[in-house]
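Postdoc handover notes: sequence design on the structure in folder B. Input tokens:
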């Protein structure tokens, strides 16, 4: 995949390791709510994302997880500037991109790409697969027509499709094949960071495993970094290096995946992990069932946003916003009382078995992928 010219850039050199590839600080997105005859009176705002901060290193996968509506996809879209942030800093290779003008941001998107959740809605039904993959190269003026055509064939092979598929239209493919086309399109401009916005949630379980394996193979092959947005914690456990847990627009816990799955410290994280299905229906486990509904993002609770559903909430939680503080090196949690909470007994003894079902089906498809590679080789 080095047949096209390298990306011209004034960013930090690709080999730089002294700074994160992406650094997000204090990211905020509030959507104004307007009412009135001509909708010109602002009566409030939806606090979709509020003071979110994290880093992503080169070659790393950071998973962003949480319930639907917690602000995960909004965060990913702000990083790509598909929507402008209300406040905060987004630095990519030390360059601030939150305030770039449209022309500069268009050039920056050569480094930043996205894989959408719906593999059909994200593809133009009037364009052939070859045209869909070629379009980003045309926008960024990469290569000659002959080089672009060769690149399309190369990318189709990389994602497990055939060269003749370039002449077909999206409706002629299955959901998993369409997602592979979306991945090929994201790779066309040789990006450094890809935002994966729930890329497998719309797929069948068996196809999920194939796409996850493909993403991991591509990451190792091209040194990609991923922001992997998901709500399936079994998928996240397999693909991520670190996990950031989000609730109602705020991060509540960030840790490497081994630490998070072995000993989650925030009550919300504990509840999420307790909901992971186990392969043995007769296995004893303690399910943590959260009571009440998720509060409105227009009027989030004062203090800790989780206090209305937290079984351990105290008066301080209802008045004071907890800081995302370090519990141990690399493990941060936003809870006033995480040191004194009872140990999460359902996870420590059985964490290895929580994602067994998913990992077994992944192993089966990994074996199938090796057989296909061997037959093609």
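Designed sequence:
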């Amino acid at each position: 995949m080095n047949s096209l010219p390298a990306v011209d850039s004034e960013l930090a050199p690709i080999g730089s390791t002294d700074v994160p590839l992406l650094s997000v600080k204090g990211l905020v997105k509030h959507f104004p709510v307007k009412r009135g005859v001509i909708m010109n009176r602002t009566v409030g705002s939806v606090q979709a994302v509020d003071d979110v901060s994290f880093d992503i290193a080169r070659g790393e996968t950071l998973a962003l997880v949480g319930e639907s509506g917690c602000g995960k996809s909004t965060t990913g879209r702000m990083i790509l500037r598909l929507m402008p942030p209300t406040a905060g800093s987004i630095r990519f290779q030390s360059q601030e991109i939150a305030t770039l003008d449209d022309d500069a941001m268009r050039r920056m998107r050569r480094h930043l790409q996205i894989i959408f959740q719906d593999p059909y809605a994200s593809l133009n039904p009037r364009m052939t697969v070859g045209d869909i993959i070629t379009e980003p190269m045309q926008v960024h003026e990469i290569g000659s027509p002959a080089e672009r055509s060769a690149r399309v064939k190369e990318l189709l092979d990389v994602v497990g499709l055939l060269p003749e598929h370039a002449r077909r239209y999206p409706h002629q493919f299955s959901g998993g094949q369409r997602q592979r086309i979306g991945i090929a399109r994201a790779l066309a401009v040789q990006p450094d960071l890809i935002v994966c916005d729930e890329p497998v949630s719309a797929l069948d379980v068996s196809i999920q495993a194939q796409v996850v394996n493909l993403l991991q193979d591509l990451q190792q092959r091209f040194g990609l970094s991923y922001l992997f947005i998901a709500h399936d914690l079994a998928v996240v456990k397999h693909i991520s290096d670190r996990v950031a847990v989000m609730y109602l627009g705020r991060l509540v816990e960030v840790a490497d995946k081994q630490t998070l799955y072995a000993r989650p410290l925030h009550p919300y994280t504990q509840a999420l992990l307790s909901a992971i299905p186990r392969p043995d229906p007769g296995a004893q486990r303690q399910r943590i069932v959260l009571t009440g509904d998720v509060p409105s993002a227009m009027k989030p609770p004062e203090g800790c946003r989780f206090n209305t559903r937290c079984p351990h909430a105290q008066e301080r939680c209802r008045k004071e916003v907890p800081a995302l503080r370090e519990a141990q090196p690399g493990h941060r949690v936003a809870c006033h009382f995480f040191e004194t909470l009872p140990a999460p007994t359902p996870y420590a003894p059985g964490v290895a078995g929580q994602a067994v079902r998913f990992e077994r089906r992944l192993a089966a498809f990994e074996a199938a992928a090796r057989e296909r590679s061997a037959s093609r080789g």
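Context for whoever picks this up: The first strand starts at residue 22 and ends at 35. Don't rerun without checking with the PI first.
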